Amino acid sequence: MTALMFVLLASILVPGSAGAQETQDPTEISYQSGDTDLPETTRGSQFLRLSVDAVAPGTVTTTSEPFVTVRATVTNTGDRRVDDISVRMQSADAVDAPEQLRTTLSLDQQEYLNVGEFQNVAVNLEQGASTQFVISMPLRSTQGPSLGIDKPGVYPLLLNVNGTPEYGGTARLDDARFLLPVTGVPRDPTAIDPTAPDAQPLPPNTDDPVATTVLWPLADRPRLAAGIPGSLDEKVRLVDDELAGELAPGGRLDELLQAVEFATTAELDPEGRLAESLCLAVDPDLLVTVSNMTRGYSIVDDPADPTGPAREGTGREAASNWLSRLETLTQSMCVTALPFAQVDLDTLGNVGDASLVSTALESPADVVDAILGVSSVRGIVWSPTGQLGETGAAAVRSSGAQTALLADNSIAPTASGAVARVVGGSSVDAELNATVFDAATSTALAGVGDNPTTPAFTPEDQRYDLTSDSRTARLQDGLGAIAYHALAPTGGSPRTLTVAPPQYWTAGGDEPDAILGTVSSLLRSGLATARPFAELAAAEPTGLPVETRTVDQDDRDVNLEDRVRAQSKRIDALRGSLVEDPQSALTPRLYTAPLREDLLRAIGTADRSDDASNAARVRMDGSEAGLDGIFRSVTVLAPGGVYTLASEQSPLLLVARNDLPVGVNVRLRVDAPPEMTVSDVGAMALPARGSRTITVPAQVDDSRNLTVDFSLTTLDGQQLGEASTVSVRSNAYGQALAIITASAGVLLLLLAGRRLLHRFRGQPDPADEGYERP
């Protein structure tokens, strides 16, 4: 940035020297419906696009040059040539309220009252052509136009471009806006008396520095393929290899980490003020992914087919180097864990699953500590959306966390400065405290990077289309927002500032360096003091619950929540049935952890675009298919043909097979006809990748062929595998045999009685006729 400033200063063009002052103020000219020299189809369309490329200085200090120089590019985006293109610089009054950090950037250009002279930058531009130019203007001047900057503050600046489209008249065709932080006003070289007080440099007031905490997020989109359980020897699978580029030198995550490494060196931060104010906020999902990448990994050809064809990943070395650097840095710096996969806390609360809440909010600190070998700051949950509704607050409360970190415009403070009850519902547990980050600063930082966004908590009047601003302009807005609270007039109460960029942040290039450099400069100058993040987490709860203001769930995906809830119950059932084997390193927890984490990735907040919504559905499809495959791996093998019992009480012999790498406890479910009684054999353990013969006591009261369905279930009744149908036949005669035997017995008794009756009477039995003795 410094080198760039010298380049710009070397090519300064004196304002007005290359251009002519318009006889009619071009800002008042616009196309009206009565303009007949411009075709109706193009009337009012945009012809030029103005983009800010560099600003020098990015932050004005007492030792800066007494003028601002901007390098910019103007491009013909219309359908015809534009002639006589000229640009001027304007400024508005210093921002005096946090919301003005955004609203001043959408004001009409007439509100920018300090106006420079127009400077010609191009004779004409054909369609698609562009030209780069440099324009400069004094901060203050007693002898001509200036930006009117005579005291420290944050000032909105504007570049206004005019031109004459072919077949049309001269008009204002575009403008570009950005914020300029001024921490000190340099000398005024135009003053008649350079020794006069009003010509001297004006430093800022450092009597009441702002206590500053900076959260530095290290997070990414979910990359692990869904539906694949934990393993000790198999490579993990990723849906793409983009993370390899982000971890490699020049990648986004490399630059975010490198900026901290550089800014906290002994040379730049000799007293450790910046390091004390910083806390690395790490997504455990990123750490899990990077840690697995260091052992080698694969990239699936189709994310919708996570177990299908795959190729070797390319980022193993980059992952190892990045993780090693992070481990080194965190040994001497604050670290805290983000919610797993930046999960949406209100969606998590809507699902209402205790095991998911534990994985999302309690386990992350353990994951970070185990992988990095540190003791992270606990007890505080940073909401990825900056907001917290009733269900989200209940989820945080149930996790045991005492404090939620939210945007300052997402809670309603009471008269005592504490926080109040939940809007539209029952109050949250009194042990849930709220600490806040500055919403205006976070909104500005969300616009920094190659994927600018506007957070959900940003009020409607502070929203505008960020794509019309250049990356440089958005960075200037971020720097201005950070400096604002240090430069704002003091109100007598203790001043604090928590800087919280988006958790998934696309800042890169020199942007992280510029942001940390601004914070470091504020700390060195005395405008700010360091406030460790641990102090926020250690603060005693206020004793009052949280009230949310702006939680919007209009886009709530109830179907996705239902799928997550159902899938979590199946995972709970599976884990509850797996066998803890002290001889195996693959525990039930390690085996099922990726399956549960998949659900959190599906309801994460890293990207709320339409593509991300589709990715969430694909992830859920993969999760369900993967768990279906696991359940199918435990089943009963059906014997072929008809199973013939030797007697009516002969046992059935079945074989149960387990293809999983961990042992599993199962129960046998039997669906038999009334003629067959099967005894419950209770729970039984199947060995990992093995089988077991099951002896099933049974009694059959019929000699017919009977159809019986056998299946295995988890201990709580979830079916495993497919049911096996067995045909059973008994060699016993059953009821017919009993009737025949009874009838024969009765007949025998009758015949014996008849014979005895004849003997008692002394009469020969007629049945003996022909058989008398001689």
Spans of 5+ residues with little confidence (pLDDT < 50)? 1-45, 414-430
- Rounded to an integer, what's the Rg over CA atoms? 39 Å
Portion of residues within helices = 25-40%
Shape: elongated
Q: How many domains?
A: 5
CATH class of the largest domain: Alpha Beta
CATH-defined architecture of the largest domain: Alpha-Beta Barrel
Structural class: alpha/beta
Main sheet, how many strands, which sense, barrel? 5 strands, antiparallel
Q: Count the E strands.
A: 29
DSSP strand (E) fraction?
Answer: 15-25%
CATH homology superfamily of the largest domain? Glycoside hydrolase/deacetylase
- Look up the CATH topology of the largest domain: TIM Barrel
Count of alpha/pi helices = 18
Question: What's the pLDDT, averaged over the residues?
Answer: 85
Cα-to-Cα separation, first versus last residue = 143 Å
Keywords: Membrane, Signal, Transmembrane, Transmembrane helix
Region (Disordered): 17-38
Pfam families: DUF6049
Biased composition (Polar residues): 20-35
